[in-house]
Amino acid sequence: MKILVVGAGGREHALVWKLAQSAEVICAPGNAGIAQEVPCFAVNPMESDRVVALAKTENVDLVVVGPEDPLVNGLADALRAAGIATFGPGRDGAQIEASKAFSKELMAAASVPTPEFRVFTEAEPAKAYARQRFADGFPVVVKASGNALGKGVVVCDTEFEAEDAIRRMLVDRVFGDAGREIIIEDRLNGFEFSILSIVGDHNFVSLPIARDHKRIGDGNVGPNTGGMGAFSPVASVPAEMVKDAEDRLVAPILAALRERGIPFRGTLFSGIMTHNGQPFCLEYNARFGDPETQPLMMRLGAGFPEALYAAATGEVVPEIEVLDRAAVGVVVASAGYPGEVVKGIPMEIAPAPEGSKVFHAGTKMQLGRLTTNGGRVVCAVGTGQSVEEARACAYRAADTVNFVGAYRRSDIAAE
Ligand code: GLY
Questions:
Q1: What is the pLDDT of residues 37-78, one digit of tens each?
Q2: Position 408 in a domain
Q3: Which atom of ligand 1 is closest in space to residue 214's alpha carbon?
Q4: 261 lies in the same domain as 301
Q5: Tens digit of pLDDT for each residue in 167-206?
Q6: Is 7 in the pocket of ligand 1 (CB under 6 A)?
Q7: Does residue 163's CB lie within 6 angstroms of at least one atom of ligand 1?
Q8: What is the DSSP letter of 194?
């Protein structure tokens, strides 16, 4: 099987690495790390026609679309219209991620447990609602409805923080159009975990659960990021809770999409928080999670390309082998992330320790030299028989990555 992976991040590097174990893989556009492993093509994923042309010229059997923006832009629709098997939902299905307002309304229609919420486009009523929730004893989370690279979620401790977040999104438009509409939802206090489900027309198969660390600082302080690290398995979430979440959060939302005539062949990412012993859905995404995918790919055995191909072609999705080991991913980021960062800083990566893999995210070759090219630069993944072993291995791997200003959390997977 020949597979084209679309994207340029750490998630795509991990997908390429896993798929290339049993398939021929090419990537567009890729990054410096991916280019060391498979042929990469300088095609912008937002230019659907060019991706279709590449898939045809290279005669691929399957296209796997990594990031959300090309999906929202209709890349999967264009590929399918050209008769190319594609793993990733069309523009309609991607709305589940592109519009949190759509997603929350779908959750309500499908009776999916989710925190109490309201949708706003005007600042003053939004502020009044937030003040009232705090006065009633319910702290809130303010979320941009559109895609803000994981940074558009503000968990508020006080009504003043909520008012500030509302102003920044609706008035100052710090997230541009992504913050034209906002969600204010009650803040739950529990354990978070993510389920990534491979969805086909007839069934879905979930990967082992993972947990990411969204805040920039140790101890979960500071602003949200795209994710500073992730690990799997998650011992604090029992198997019954995972089953419950699949039954009450994953299956009903897929049924609701089908009822609305929205096909979904791709990954449904369910971001979940436990509350009073029950799973609640915080968000859905229409793609593999980043950085969850990096450790998860190192836990998978045989059957991954076959599962994606089956989902893409309308066949029953087969089970995927899960290896009996833990994996932990530690993101190494540029100084200043999740704010402005300087790109183009020379970097070096020494050989990774056994059982680990450094997945590149924001990296680039410039004048023959490896340099940084973004906020999250690499995700160093370690494996082991336990999360503790995997964690030690991941930090040894992260130590091999050197550039000026390199930053990482020191408490990834330290539950
Ligand atoms: N790690 C969360 C996400 O991929 O959106």
A1: 999 999 999 999 999 999 999 999 999 999 999 999 999 999
A2: no
A3: 1
A4: yes
A5: 999 999 999 999 999 999 999 988 999 999 999 999 999 9
A6: no
A7: no
A8: E
Q: How many domains does the chain divide into?
A: 4
Atom 3 (ligand 1) nearest CA: 289
Query: Which ligand 1 atom lies nearest to the CA of residue 288?
Result: 4
Nearest atom, ligand 1, residue 271 CA:
2
Q: What is the DSSP string of 133-145?
A: HHHTT--EEEEES
Q: Is 97 in the pocket of ligand 1 (CB under 6 A)?
A: no
Same domain, 171 and 265: no
3-state secondary structure 239-299: HHHHHHHHHHHHHHHHHHHHHCCCCCCEEEEEEEEEECCEEEEEEEECCCCCCCHHHHHCC
Going by alpha carbons, the residue nearest to atom 5 of ligand 1 is 289
Asked, for residue 367, whether it belongs to a domain, the answer is yes
* pLDDT tier, 329 (very low <50, low <70, confident <90, very high otherwise): very high
Residue 415 domain flag = no
Mutate which of 143, 209, 212, 288 for ligand 1 pocket (most atoms within 8 A of beta carbon): 212
Same domain assignment for residues 131 and 208:
no
Q: Which atom of ligand 1 is nearest to the CA of 11?
A: 4
Q: Identify the residue whose C-alpha is closest to ligand 1 atom 4.
A: 289
What CATH code is carried by the domain that includes residue 158? Answer: 3.30.1490.20
Ligand 1 proximity of 150 Cβ (cutoff 6 Å)? yes
Residue range(s) defining the domain that contains residue 242 = 192-312
Dist. CA 138 → ligand 1 center (Å): 25
* Residue of 79, 105, 73, 81 whose CA lies nearest to 5: 79
Residue 285 and residue 240 share a domain: yes
Determine whether the shortest distance from the Cβ of 289 to ligand 1 is under 6 A: yes
Q: Which of 284, 312, 340 is the last residue of a domain?
A: 312
Identify whether residues 171 and 196 lie together within a single domain.
no
Same domain, 163 and 208: no
Q: Say if residue 307 is in the same domain as residue 258.
A: yes
CATH of the domain at 51: 3.40.50.20
Let me know if residue 379 belongs to a domain.
Answer: yes
pTM: 0.95
Residues 6+ apart with CB under 8 A from 96: 89, 102, 103, 106, 253, 257, 268, 284, 285, 286
Residue of 206, 163, 415, 188 whose CA lies nearest to 283? 188
- CATH number of the domain where residue 347 is located: 3.90.600.10
Q: What is the pLDDT of residue 148?
A: 81
Phi-psi region of 176 (alpha: psi -120 to 50; beta: other; left: phi over 0): left
